[in-house]
Amino acid sequence: MPSMDVDRDPATYLAQALTTPGLPAELKPFYEAFSRFYENKLWFQLTTTIEAFLATPASGPFQIELYEQFIKDFASKLNQLKLASIGIAVARQFTDGNQGLEFLTTLTTTLDTPKTREAFVLASMESAHFKLLLGDNEGTKEAMDKCEKILDSLDSVDLAVHASFYRVSGDYFKAKAEYADYYKSSLLYLACVNVETDLLPGDRIQRAHDLGLSALLGKIYNFGELLMHPILDALVSTEHAWIRDLLFAFNAGDIAKFDSLASALEKEPILQENFPFLRQKICLMALIEAVFKRPTSDRVLPFSVIASETRVPADEVEILVMKALSLKLIRGSVDQVSSTASVSWVQPRVLDRKQIDGLRERLSSWCDRVSLVGDMAQAQGGPELFVQG
Known about the structure:
The protein is mainly α. About 60% of the residues lie in helices and about 5% in strands. The protein contains 20 helices and three strands. Strands 1-3-2 form a three-stranded antiparallel β-sheet. A hairpin with a 4-residue loop joins strand 2 (about 330-335) and strand 3 (about 340-345). Helix 14 (about 240-250) runs antiparallel to helix 15. The longest helix has 29 residues, at about 355-380. The radius of gyration is 29 Å and the shape is elongated.
């Protein structure tokens, strides 16, 4: 292809491009359509054709020149959110990250107007992604904070813009090892995309892997939302399948399952390094489960019962309960004299099928008791007790 440094009339550029020996045959129809739509000023059709061109793998080496020699000429005529998406695709063709960032920064500046806030956020966040790759964490965070304020001020936002914001934010939190924030941002990102069509198989596995680790390592004690998300299915039949099993073990407070999977932690050094934290976390989850599966009338737990359910030494039970109270996983009190813990509330969470089954049985038992009390009252007091005044 001719050098992108030579400025030419768009029509001349397209005519010359069509005669370039290196142009793949599959791309020639695109250039012919570009010429036709440009000549007739059919900007919408031109935009969709450009998007199709960029999505064609063979177009990679030609994208930067197409933008510089053709698209820039009528950029103001296009939907600016579409223009931002086109510019982002082109920026990814630069082999030098600094050049890609410079390209996107120039585009972002042109989109910084009151009428193009969504396009500005999209371009800004993708510029921030380049900064993150180049090690500029501070610049990435500044862009995140600025864009978050803009998004909060908008009444409606295109899903692609939100997806970009949450994806790049998640990448930032991953780089900073801020697990809970990564977990939240990544789930919000997944809510903005179609997992099956928008993510490649390898990307789905990596996303599920990272989400699993963040759920385990973060101060997150309710990750039922992740367990119900189809992204986790990407781990089935892979080398990371045990992470999925471990997540379900934590959600159920299943210490026996945790112990059976403990040897697999060696596959993830970061989990192995944080084993004491994981051990305490599974014990806390076991405590929550022990309380949850009991009826509200039976939530005064002796320390001996808690020690048995959580598999912690008797002299560490009180510390575990105090930790659960401080994390607001439960509400209640500790009676040191009687060595009991009275629990009045358990943090709401998403339940798996087994837990729902247990809840159904308790509700059924409660209904039976209510019915029995009603029958006894009617037998002792007569039907007049149930007559409405």
